[in-house]
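chain below, 745 aa
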Amino acid sequence: MTAPFAAPPLPEVLVPDEQACRATLERLQAQSEPRVVVVGNPNTGKTTLINAVAGTNLKVGNWSGVTVEKREAQLSVAGRKVHLLDLPGAYSLSPHTPEELVTRTALLDESPDVILNVLDAGNLERNLYLTLQLLDFEIPVAVTLNLVDEAQEKGLNVDAAALSRALGVPVRETVASRQQGTQTLLETSLQQATLGVRVRYPRLIEDAVGDLVGRMKALPTLPSHAHRYLALALLEGDPSVRGRLSATGHTALIDAADAHLAVLEAQGTDALIEIAEARYARAGDLARLSVPQAEARRTLTDRLDGLALHPLLGIPLFLGLVLLVFRLTFSVASPFVDLIGGPLQDTVSGWASALLAWFPLGRDLVVGAIIPGVGTVLSFLPTLLVLYLAMSFLEDSGYMARAAFLMDRTMRTLGLDGRAFIPLILGFGCNVPAVSATRTLERRSDRIVVSMILPFMSCSARLPVYVIFAAALFPKAGSWVVWGMYVLGMAVAFTFAYFLRRTSYPAEGGGVLLELPPYRFPAWKVLWKHAWRRTASFAKRARTTVLATVAVVWLLMALPAVTGQKFATVPPQDSIFGKASQAMSPIFAPLGFGDWRAAGALVPGFIAKEVVVGTLGQIYLGEQAAAPAPLGLVAGVQQAVSATWDAVKTSLSAIPTVLALPHLGTDTTADQKSPLARALAGAFTPASGLSYLVFVLLYTPCIVTVGAIAQEHGRKVAWVTVAYQLSIAWVTAFLVYRLALGLGL
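prediction:
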């Protein structure tokens, strides 16, 4: 028999008060400079969406953690200045990773006026969990259904109108990669964003939330837009929220939450589980309401993954693709490397010699140091541009996430998981952002171990050294030598990680989920932006760090270390730089390059690795370039144009040789080599050249990388990294040299 006065069951949702929604919308319209934060799961196309909306140059990628820090843009929308904030991809606001903590902290502290929540239309149920957490804030929300084209390819047609009615907030469909639906997205979001329909949790939990929210209203130091969210986080036992409140003196609030938890526990209610289950149930209901059931289709991604993730073929395919990238880089870019490092550099030197004929000391500095030093570094910009284009294509297409998945088993033998491979891959571009990307790893020991092995991953600044030595000593196998350096760096990194895991930093255990986004064909405009920005960053360093370094090296080479010599006329071996290099050169004699010039070029590399090739150019070419024949303007232009046309023809003709195994196209004759390559060919043997490359690959990282490691993990970890890298570099180079001699190189 039913009790006559039994309370009716509570509805599953909390509908916001109409008056509160109207007041919120009025406040939003009154904001002269509204702040919009873009929040979403990783791999929802969130960053691509911001590029489409704001035209910013944010990094676009297809793995979790590519946007480690928040990014900001400013633009004008309907006459208002809008601040757009891109937050790191997060699966939840109950942070398990540093990037999720960054996102949650920004929502609490930045006081945004609108949340633009980006959903993957093809993975709606998983994405909606975060949406339901966002609705617990007193912040207007607008939802964007992105990647609609990929969902339709899977046979999924999302009913945006039904989802909008169920959530109580505006929902718009977009395909950001094609700029479909993005033109007026911000304007309509600012006009229509509102407070949405929230999840209603079990009565006891709602009663506890109401009590905690009431207490918070009397605490003006707490963000007023986050009272409900903070109350739920306290009941979930979120340690970061509790730590935040404890640090700000709100211990009474924590005590009140603990009292409620004790009551809930006494009645057999686990608040953490109840809250999570309610959100998952609501997310499932929303997904079923919005997406009619359709027959699953076998997509292009499924077919490609059959090969890319094959247990036997997957890793060889990955290594083959990396080799193909280096063959493409070497074949297409080498003619332009020789162009800039040869004819164009000669032309600029001739002009400088003519302009500075009245000032011999200045001419010697410019022609004998700055042009050969900075010019040699800049000559490798074409190589880096091609490399960055190829790597950006692999990243943005979704393949790099597969590489991380393939390497998961290997990484687990080292006590790491597949996600640790992502910062290592980023290290091929630059070790500094790669160290920052370790924040995406959950366990502290993982972050330290990966940061300590990252400098073994060959960054782009080392590539010019490989290329010039390969052209000088291995003209028929240049790409294989470069590829070998990258593979050797990975092998040493993995070996040392294994050692660290069994000594200083044992594995902490636990598994992770690794998301594989669909394959996407990147927009060429976006690829070009990525590659150009990275290459421009390298050129900027050449204009600053390298310029300053070669000027200091020139000064040290101009200062005599023995009596009877004059400034700027002293032979290089009798200069301060020469004598210091001679003093340290015996350390490298067992490695095959005891020549003071080779040893001396390594020292500035601690400032920046790209300085090594600039210093080599300065030392080996400085005397040649000290007094070039003056060159007229017209003659110089004719020489440069003719050499550029020859380089273009050579580069285009080399493209078919990319797939011509086993060697890279035709041989490079002595006449075709750049001046520095000819000089190195006379100063090194193949054995000593390989040893030098191995040492450059493995020795201490640049000072900026050391600073990044110190900032993330402390000075002790940074300087231990420097010490063991020097030791490993010397031992490995010695072994390679002896092996090469044994093979008759």
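The longest strand covers residues 71-77. Confidence is low (pLDDT under 50) at residues 1-11, 59-67, 661-671.
thats it, cya
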